[in-house]
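HUMAN:
Could you generate one sequence with tokenized structure?
ASSISTANT:
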Amino acid sequence: MASILNVDKIRATGSTTDAIKILSTGHIPCFQVYMSGNQTIAQAAAATVVFNANDFLHGWTLANTGILTCSSGSGGIYSINFRVRINSGSDGNWYARIRKNGNSLVGEYMQNEYYEYANVATLVSIADSDEIEAVVFQNIASISDTIGGNDLGPNCYMYGYRVSG
């Protein structure tokens, strides 16, 4: 015997703040985007990662610039993770960063030795219409196809999911 509970939000008694809201599609707002190819980032320069594919976008949109926008009704507290690999075996400095509305949220500085990964994660409050982007800076060398590629899946991806209201 199966039971069904039909709710679109969970809220504490007497509160006006929603702990969890479910989209009309039946999903919790979330996204997973990745780069299906490669992207070249000039030496001593930072660039927005141009994610061009997704596994899912629930309550988010992805522009052809790689920037994600939170749709109406999808704001809340999010867990966001960005992972990227530099496609170089040369020594040098680089960083990966997550930005919200053009401002840095969190980042990781790296000393590249051989095809190093950076993994940047944070919890952040996102409002409807906020924009999220991933940025990579490299000062290693002039590297063609600096980031991206596919080894056991995409080498450059970002995901996020709403954990609270």
